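Working notes for the structural subgroup meeting. M.R. asked for a predicted model of this chain before we commit to crystallization trials. I am recording the input and output together here so anyone reviewing the notebook later can reproduce the run.

Input as submitted:
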Amino acid sequence: MSHRKQQKEALRREREARERQAREAQQRKRMVGFGAAGLLVIAAVIVLVVVAAGGNGGGSDAAAEQVLPDGGSVPDQKEFDLNAAAQAAGCELRSSRAKSRQHTTSLDQRINYDTNPPTSGRHYQEPAPDGAYGEAPQDEQLVHNLEHGRVIIWFKPSLPAEQRADLKALFDEDSYQMLLVPRPNMPYQVAASAWNRDPTPNGTGRLMTCARMTPDVFDALRAFRDEHRSNGPEPVP
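Returned structure, recorded in token form:
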């Protein structure tokens, strides 16, 4: 097994351990705060919310089923190094220091971000649920997801249905702390953004832009995901 594959496997095990620890901590908190009866009520509410949202954290809804059809496929990963994968795919990598981590209290407070798609900056106080979207939440919400260590893959909804299905297959391959979001007004066919915690206190925005959707883009997106996921200024499981 190559060194990069070993790193990826180690990252996967670390993510699974974090998820397990978060679930156990949440379970203990609920048991202390609410007792067994309270747990039953919470479980019922969660079921109702999931059903109403389409069953995938609120991200996959009827619109997502049309914009991101099932049945796609992706090639096996061959390149694990981000710089090499981006170069092979013809994608550009950029970084910029974040200017602010302040919260806004209303989605009516629109923010003019320095990059398209955004990578960091002031944002709404509540993030969007993780998931695959047919209709994009506001940038102000999505930037909060980035602050929490999420990676967002952005795509032109005008891409052929087959390519959109393949992007959905990539998302389903490893959806932990991921969002897949349409963005008609960006000058790229595919992009990915993240927000790293260093340097403190505001961190660094990361952006990868791909002018064309080709098979090599999948490795670039995987490498970007594995490089930057779970590394936000405000890490949240």
